[in-house]
What we know:
By secondary structure, the chain is α+β, with helices and mostly antiparallel strands. The protein has 2 domains: 2-104 and 217-226, no CATH class; 117-199, no CATH class. The protein has 6 helices and 8 strands. The chain has helices at 11-19, 95-101, 105-116, 128-154, 171-184, 207-214, and strands at 2-4, 24-27, 33-35, 42-43, 53-62, 68-76, 84-88, 221-226. Strands 1, 2, 3, 4, 5, 6, 7 and 8 form an 8-stranded mixed β-sheet that branches. Helix 4 crosses helix 5. The two termini are 27 Å apart. The relative contact order is 0.13. The mean pLDDT is 85.
Amino acid sequence: MLLADCGFANHQLVSWLRTSQWHYCLRLPCDVTIHRARRHPIELKYLFPSKSEAVLYHHIGLWLDGECRTNLVLANVKGVKEPWAVITDEEPTLQTLWQYALRFRIEELFLDSKSGVFQLEESKIRHPQALERLYLVVALALLFATVHGMTVELKGLRTQVDPHWERGLSYLKIGLRWLKGILHKGRDLFEPIPLLSHNFLPCFASVKAKREYYNAIWFNRVSELKCKQI
């Protein structure tokens, strides 16, 4: 499934996705023209529901010509600055919002690549080829440390580097702490394992963070509208 922010949603991409084997959840900008949600074409920003409400649209048309047909989920989440408008080729449900929210995990990767771990911005490199080579080294380091963190978890050794009762650090940071211990504390260097297909132990730094994560998306009212197909 392709997950992308509103900067990537365009007629050409959605047309290609409709003929491919990819599913998608794409966020729309507020100025996109929507067909068949109302009697006449209307800009998306006029369709957003009130706070704590969501609307599920089936088979709406997009952009000026309205020829691109898809499903749309509108949500105005309490505590979030801007409403969400997510299109999908699958059945529009509240699960669509959870699927799209998985996209935000890439922000953690950006953070680790910059101020979180590797301080890429401090390199001051401006030459594209040199920056590309540097990021190749960083990507390999990210992969190696993440795999090592997963290995530490599977071997039941996590609490030696992560004191939380449940996992409170990313696999990357667990791996980096373990690798430092190899140099300074004589810990073992493990054989790499394949990346896990799913996160069997979610990471929360506190009980409060866990509660806020699972209570982030709640609605007082959910409406469903099926647009007429022609």
